Each structure stands twice: as structure tokens, then as C-alpha cells.
């Protein structure tokens, strides 16, 4: 979608002439030297093809048609071997970085709320050897505390270097690492800890004194709490029999001991490495059993799609390590000599909530070359930048839009635009440190508008991926030279994908022009199933006659002629309306979520009714301006609760829906504006900011009942 501008025709022709002249002068040497010719050729190549030409047969990457890849390095079939190989290969190279905290202070807001602000210093680094020694000592120390091989141990902690060190210790000593999101609610945490029967939990001092304090009495088997930072304190109601340690003290114990049972403890490829609890977007979190060979297969496939991955790369880690996307990305980096600098959503940029005004965020200091993000974060960046563009002077805005549209045309043909990149988009690119060469995106579908914006303004390809916790995060990733939008790429070299007919939704693998159906992923990356949930495991997983393990994803896709996959629907998001039409809730949300007026949106429909309703978290600045134009005054809550304002917002949504060519029955006719944002802490979205439809439905049940009582035209 091109941006609109209003610019003087004479000036427009002059600028176009300058750009054309520059392009003609630089085109020939650039075309020969830049590798663009090869990139254009690669973008047109077939990327995956079916094993044979029968409908419903699996597609494989052209690089693994005859044999799926399963290991990164010969003989490294478990995660501890991968790390040991990397430690030997990269020796004293730095691996994990953490910024030092120079100052913390409380900042009182005009509303009276107190926000914690920090001033951070430079990154301090641990080498591969440092991390290896710390992991060995920690694993030994856990053994002294009574941890046995193949027994479960939980980590409930924010993303940080100590998380990865603890994980590597567990991989070495064959402890099953149970991962829980730091933002999970109390009942979900209790469920995970009790279901896995852990007696030791690794956490942070902050989480121990907040979330764990509230639920520790409900975990009767718990005996040890290990904090990764500082000296912990207990409280008056602290349960008897539970001992609190620091990570440093456990490592000190381990350093004094021999390598307890190290030979007997070594894992084999089929041993469980991680029991990863999902974010619970559709109910109670499920523990996915991921073996060593599952994870190695997955990261083997991912690494193949990142060209020139190596020691020059710096990755910024800030997404939850309890999410398979972040864990896989960091394991890919660790195994290839890349540095990993840690951050958090609260300290990521100069404008982040915990960064003291005037000081630098993590991304500005680290200047990473690789970054992973979920679509919600990319959508926020897009809206923030476009808000700043709209606030520019007329000349600046029109120049930006002209360059934007020019570059859009060029990259759609496979070309780059060095002049625009250096003169127009340099400042935008600096928002992510200025050196990003590949952005990895996963966790949910990314809109074409946002993807194209990231391509243009951050001057790098977006590797949009598709995978699930149940497939070790692996499935597909777009090639870096593929600048098409709306697709998730070809199957990775570690797996194969086929489409199964879904008659209820009307999707068939014999459809023309593209085969369509439910996406099934097969390969060694497909996990072992759900912990203590055989019924659900049998429902979602199966083994075919050739011994290949398959996963039913519940997502609907179509394969294009070049072998790339496009996600077009989700079985759980498809609702049959009263009149018999099927409405895709995800499709409605995708058409409306990039409106400046919308910060977040959830569509809802019922088979007992004939129309769609939506819940919207509005952008405060945009909604207040809309209310002002319509002559409505009041507090933020009063504006959001105003029926008049609701009608005005509904008009904006309806117009956007028609522009996006939604069917009449897909256009929302009722709305509820939420004055409060949906965050993982509210329990209404996951850590990857995917909607929790069940929780949102419960939260807004009274509004649903009201909106379906009587339709107002």
C-alpha cells in the first residue's frame, strides 16, 4: 500500500528527475557489484516442491528433497555436545552480555504514580569459557542439592544471561528444564509447578517477592528456590522446609565438588530437554515435551535460512526465553559464534518505560545486527514512526512519502535504494541501532503493510517465520531475498509440510490455483507431545507408516507455485454465523489493526447471531482528537464509554473494512472501547501478544450480552 502525499507538481517532477538521474548514473556499477542480479534470480527460483505430484503430498525445501537435515555439526546430537563444540570452536570469544546498572531512581508522574527509572552503563561480557564453567558449576551444585538426572526443575525468570547459563547446566546434566512465562498468572504457575512435581525453582529476586510469594504455599513439593540475582529475603509466612539459595552460592558449591555422575548423566538425543509451557491462549497452559534432537533439528533448519551467520553478528535478546521463538533464536546464535546482548521491553529503546530521559536504551548501545520480534512490537514501531511522519512539516512529510513509495517500487523488483537509505531512512534505522541486517518475526501473522514498512524504513529483509512450540518453533522462514508480503516462506530443511483437506471450512488440497488445507508439519523437530496429557497428544500428533512424526497445527494454509506457504485462516478463528456464512476473526482483525485509531483489536462472532462485534483498545491520542472534532469532552474513561464516540469509531472501522474488501457480513456492527490496554500482565494476551480469546470473551461477557441483545443500525 502506497502512502498518499500532496506535493507541488513542479517540485514533484524535479525530485523525480533527481532520483532518476541518480539511479541511471549508479545503476550499472551497483547492479554488477551489489549482488542484486543474483538476488533477483534467487527470488524467482522454486524454493520448495512436493515429494511427488499427488494431491496432499508433502512439500520439502529444494535443499532437502531427498533427506531432511537433523544436526548442525557431525556427532553433535544433543544440546550439551553442541555447546561444547561451539566452546571449542570459538574459544575465548565473548558470548553473553549484560548492561551494568549505574543508577536507579523513582520518578513521580503527574498522576501520582511512581515509575522506576534506570541509567545503564556499557555491556559487560562473558566468554564461551566463562559461560561453560558457570554452567558446569551450577549443574554440579544442583546435584549436591539433590537434583537427579531426568528429573524436572523449573525456571521462572525474566530473559537474562543467567537464564541461558541455567539452561545449559540442565542440558549438560540431563535435568528436564520446565519453563514458565514470567507474566503467567498465579493459577497457571501453580498448575505448571504441580503438574511437573518440581522441588526446585530458579527465579529472580523480584519474581520471588511478588508472584512466587503469593502461590508458594500451593506448591507442596517445593524444597529449593534459587534466585539468580542478589541476596534473597524471606517473609514471615514463608513455608517451612523451603530453602532459598543464590545462583552464586550454588555455583560455589558445585565448583568445590567433583563432576557428580557426569558420565551417567549425559543425555541421549531422545531425552527430554525442555518441558515448555505454552502461553495458554486457548485455555490452561500445556507442557510441551521437547527432546534434545527436536531442538537441534529445529535450530538446524532455522540457521540455514540466515546467510553469513557468524562471529560478526550481535543478537539482542529481550523476548521471553520461555517462548520457543526466543530460545531457538539464542541457541542458533550460541552455536554459530554470535554475541547475545540482553535487554528487556522496558529498557530496549531510548524511549522505553524504565529508561531515564536523556540516557540510552539497550539497542542504541548494543547496535545489534540480528533481532527477533513479534508482530505486535513491529506494529507499534510502524504506528509510532508514522505518527512522527504526520507531525513533520509539509515538505519533510512529502519527501519522506515520495522516497517511501519510490523504494517500495524498487524493492518489489528486487532492487535496493542506497541514496534513499542514507538520506531519508537513516534516522528511522537508528531506532534499532542502525546495524540490523535481518529482522526475524514470528509468533503470529505479520500484516503486509507492517512488513513492507520494516523492509523500507529499516533497510533490511524481514524473515517472517511460522512454527509452533509443538514443532520446536520450526516450520518455515522466508528467504532474505524474498520481498513478497503475506507469506511465511518455504519449509525449513529440517521438516516437510503437507495440507490436509478440511471439509467444514471448504479447504481442499485439490483447490485451484493453489492447494489449500490444514497445515501438517512432519520431521524430527516435531515434539514428543504434551506432558501428562495423552488424550490431547493423540489428537494433535501422529506417526505415519514410514515412521515420520506429524503435527496437526490447526492453521489453514496454501502453497504457492514457488513452494512458499501462506497462512490464510485458523480453524479456531473460523465462526459460522446464523445465516450460514463463515467469518474469519483473524481476517477481520488483520484488516483493521493497523489503523492509527487502533492499538489492539479482538473480533467476536457467535453462531446464534448474524453479525460481528469487536473489542478495541483505542490509541489515546487519536481517539481524544476524534472526540474533540465531534465536540465530545470528558475523561479518558468517559470518552471510551460514550455511545456517540463508539459510533464514530465504528464508522472509521467500517470504512477501513470496505477498503480492505471485507464481505458485508465481516464488517463489525457493534463495538466496545477499552480504556485499559491488554498486556500479558492483564492475562488477556500472551507474552507474544497473541489474543487470548477465551479470557477476552469472559472479560467482556457483559458487553457481549449487551451488544447482542438488540442490534442498533
Q: Describe it for me?
A:
With 713 residues, the chain is α/β, with parallel strands linked by helices. It has three domains: 48-67 and 374-570, Luciferase, Domain 3 (Luciferase, domain 3), CATH 2.30.38; 79-94 and 125-330, Rossmann fold, CATH 3.40.50; 577-709, GMP Synthetase, Chain A, domain 3. The chain contains 24 helices and 28 strands. It has a nine-stranded mixed sheet with strand order 4-3-13-12-14-15-16-17-18. Strands 9-8-7-5-6-10-11 form a seven-stranded mixed sheet. Strands 19, 20, 21, 22 and 23 form a five-stranded antiparallel sheet that branches. Helix 5 (161-173) links the parallel strand 5 and strand 6 (176-179). The relative contact order is 0.10. The mean pLDDT is 89. Residues 118-531 form the AMP-dependent synthetase/ligase domain. GO terms for molecular function: long-chain fatty acid-CoA ligase activity; protein domain specific binding; protein kinase binding. The chain crosses the membrane at residues 12-33.
Annotation keywords:
Luciferase, domain 3; alpha/beta; single chain; 9-stranded mixed sheet; GMP Synthetase, Chain A, domain 3; Rossmann fold; 36% helix; 713 residues; 7-stranded mixed sheet
Shape: globular
Structural class: alpha/beta
Distance between the termini: 31 Å
Evaluate the radius of gyration: 26 Å
Strand order of the largest sheet: 4-3-13-12-14-15-16-17-18
Overall pLDDT confidence? 89
Low-confidence stretches: none
* CATH C-level name of the largest domain: Alpha Beta
Let me know the largest β-sheet.
9 strands, mixed
How many helices in DSSP terms? Answer: 24
Overall tally of domains: 3
CATH third-level topology of the largest domain? Rossmann fold
CATH architecture of the largest domain: 3-Layer(aba) Sandwich
Helix content: 25-40%
- Count of β-strands: 28
- Beta-strand content estimate: 15-25%
GO biological process, one term: very-low-density lipoprotein particle assembly
GO molecular function: long-chain fatty acid-CoA ligase activity; protein domain specific binding; protein kinase binding
Domain AMP-dependent synthetase/ligase: 118-531
Keywords: Fatty acid metabolism, Ligase, Lipid metabolism, Membrane, Transmembrane, Transmembrane helix
Amino acid at each position: 500500500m502506497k502512502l498518499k502525499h500532496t506535493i507541488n507538481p513542479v517540485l514533484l517532477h524535479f525530485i523525480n528527475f533527481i532520483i532518476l538521474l541518480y539511479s541511471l548514473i549508479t545503476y550499472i556499477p551497483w547492479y554488477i557489484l551489489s549482488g542484486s542480479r543474483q538476488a533477483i534470480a534467487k527470488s524467482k527460483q522454486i524454493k520448495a516442491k512436493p515429494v511427488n505430484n499427488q494431491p496432499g503430498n508433502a512439500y520439502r525445501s529444494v535443499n532437502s528433497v531427498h533427506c531432511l537435515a537433523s544436526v548442525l555439526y557431525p556427532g553433535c546430537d544433543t544440546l550439551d555436545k553442541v555447546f561444547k563444540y561451539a566452546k571449542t570452536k570459538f574459544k575465548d570469544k565473548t558470548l553473553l552480555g549484560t548492561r551494568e546498572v549505574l543508577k536507579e531512581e523513582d520518578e513521580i508522574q503527574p498522576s501520582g504514580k511512581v515509575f522506576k527509572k534506570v541509567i545503564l552503563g556499557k555491556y559487560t561480557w562473558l566468554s564461551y569459557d566463562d559461560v561453560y564453567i558457570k554452567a558446569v558449576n551450577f549443574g554440579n551444585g544442583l546435584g549436591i542439592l539433590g537434583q537427579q538426572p531426568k528429573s524436572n526443575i523449573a525456571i521462572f525468570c525474566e530473559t537474562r544471561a543467567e537464564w541461558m547459563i541455567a539452561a545449559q547446566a540442565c542440558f549438560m546434566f540431563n535435568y528436564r528444564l520446565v519453563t514458565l512465562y514470567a507474566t503467567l498468572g498465579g493459577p497457571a504457575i501453580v498448575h505448571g509447578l504441580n503438574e511437573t512435581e518440581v522441588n526446585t525453582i530458579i527465579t529472580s529476586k523480584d519474581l520471588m517477592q511478588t508472584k512466587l510469594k503469593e502461590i508458594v504455599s500451593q506448591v507442596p513439593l517445593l524444597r529449593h528456590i534459587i534466585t539468580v540475582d542478589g541476596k534473597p529475603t524471606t517473609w514471615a509466612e514463608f513455608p517451612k522446609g523451603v530453602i532459598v539459595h543464590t545462583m552464586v552460592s550454588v555455583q560455589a558449591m558445585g565448583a568445590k565438588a567433583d563432576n557428580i555422575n557426569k558420565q551417567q548423566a549425559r543425555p541421549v538425543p531422545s531425552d527430554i530437554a525442555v518441558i515448555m509451557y505454552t502461553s495458554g491462549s486457548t485455555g490452561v497452559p500445556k507442557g510441551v515435551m521437547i527432546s534434545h534432537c527436536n531442538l537441534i533439528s529445529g535450530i538446524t533448519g532455522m540457521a540455514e535460512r540466515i546467510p553469513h551467520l557468524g562471529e560478526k553478528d550481535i543478537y539482542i535478546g529481550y523476548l521471553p526465553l520461555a517462548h520457543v521463538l526466543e530460545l531457538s533464536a539464542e541457541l542458533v546464535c550460541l552455536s554459530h559464534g554470535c554475541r547475545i546482548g540482553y535487554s528487556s521491553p522496558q529498557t530496549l529503546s531510548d524511549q522505553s518505560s524504565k529508561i531515564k530521559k536523556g540516557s540510552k536504551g539497550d539497542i542504541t548501545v548494543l547496535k545489534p545486527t540480528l533481532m527477533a520480534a513479534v508482530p505486535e512490537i513491529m506494529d507499534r514501531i510502524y504506528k509510532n514512526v508514522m505518527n512522527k511522519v504526520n507531525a513533520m512539516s509539509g515538505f519533510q512529510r512529502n519527501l519522506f512519502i515520495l522516497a517511501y513509495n519510490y523504494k517500495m517500487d524498487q524493492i518489489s523488483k528486487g532492487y535496493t535504494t542506497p541514496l534513499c537509505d542514507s538520506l531519508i531512512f537513516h534516522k528511522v534505522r537508528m531506532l534499532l541501532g542502525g546495524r540490523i541486517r535481518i529482522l526475524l518475526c514470528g509468533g503470529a501473522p505479520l500484516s503486509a503493510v507492517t512488513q513492507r514498512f520494516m523492509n523500507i524504513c529499516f533497510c533490511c529483509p524481514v524473515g517472517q517465520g511460522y512454527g509452533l512450540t509443538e514443532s520446536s518453533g520450526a516450520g518455515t522462514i522466508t528467504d532474505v531475498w524474498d520481498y513478497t508480503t503475506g507469506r511465511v516462506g518455504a519449509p525449513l530443511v529440517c521438516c516437510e509440510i503437507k495440507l490436509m483437506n478440511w471439509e467444514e471450512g471448504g479447504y481442499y488440497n485439490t483447490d485451484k490455483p493453489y492447494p489449500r488445507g490444514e497445515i501438517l508439519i512432519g520431521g524430527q523437530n516435531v515434539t514428543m507431545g504434551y506432558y501428562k496429557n495423552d488424550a490431547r497428544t493423540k489428537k494433535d500428533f501422529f506417526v505415519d507408516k514410514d515412521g515420520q512424526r506429524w503435527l496437526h497445527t490447526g492453521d489453514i494454509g496454501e502453497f504457492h507455485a514457488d513452494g512458499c506457504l501462506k497462512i490464510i485462516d485458523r480453524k479456531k478463528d473460523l465462526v459460522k454465523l446464523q445465516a450460514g456464512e463463515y467469518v474469519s476473526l483473524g481476517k477481520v482483525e488483520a484488516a483493521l489493526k493497523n489503523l492509527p485509531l487502533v492499538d489492539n483489536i479482538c473480533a467476536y462472532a457467535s453462531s446464534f447471531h448474524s453479525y460481528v462485534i469487536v473489542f478495541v483498545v483505542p490509541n489515546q491520542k487519536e481517539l481524544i482528537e476524534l472526540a474533540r472534532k465531534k465536540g465530545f469532552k470528558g475523561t479518558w474513561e468517559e470518552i471510551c464509554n460514550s455511545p456517540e464516540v463508539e459510533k464514530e469509531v465504528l464508522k472509521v472501522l467500517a470504512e477501513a473494512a470496505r477498503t480492505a474488501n471485507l464481505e458485508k457480513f465481516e464488517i463489525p456492527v457493534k463495538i466496545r472501547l477499552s480504556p485499559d490496554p491488554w498486556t500479558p500482565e492483564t492475562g488477556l494476551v500472551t507474552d507474544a501478544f497473541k489474543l487470548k480469546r477465551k479470557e477476552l470473551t469472559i472479560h467482556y461477557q457483559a458487553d457481549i450480552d449487551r451488544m447482542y441483545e438488540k442490534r442498533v443500525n
